[in-house]
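Molecular record:
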Amino acid sequence: MRNWPLSELSVTTPRLELRHPSLDDLDELGERASEGIHEPGYMPFLFPWTDTDPAGRARSTIQYHFRMWGEFAPANWSIDFVVVHDGQIIGTQSISAKSFLVTREAGTGSWLGRRFQGQGIGTEMRKAVLHLAFAGLGASYAVTEAFEDNHASLAVTRKLGYREDGLAMHDRQGKPVVTHRFRLAREDWTESPGFEIHNLAACLPLFGLDT
């Protein structure tokens, strides 16, 4: 789309493509959500959007992406890529920021369909958006947060060199739960071979950044 250059933005890794989704991509992503993301009775998300039936998860997934497209602005933005592996959409990886032009700080979030978990894909897709943040957008910091019982997410974060950045208490479905916050500084980030950003230059004005 000539007037929405984000539609051409992507990041490739040795085995993944992270791309801005088309409508067909969102439909397939909705199918992954409907198939299940986590075990029944467990909630890894602060907003319990998966606590519904399969059709509701699919609709919620698509509506979320529509909202992010409509609200994108330099002062508050989120890019929510679909993750493609062997020609199949398997999950989503986001990078987002508020007041990025001032703070140079971006956060990340993600989920994978259950049948694609445990293969190291979560680490690779996080590394892809860190590459976009530091090598592409000039971030100074990347931050993330996860519940203390989300062991998979915490393992990815620690593997990539983030440092502890405090704790927070949240109400998760009526019960108190701790989240761990982490921060990765540019100087602690290690660039990985085989990671490439595509079609970013045309998108930079949407972030308020110079080309």
User: Anything to note?
Assistant: The beta strands are 10-12, 17-19, 76-85, 88-98, 105-112, 141-147, 163-172, 175-185, 196-198.
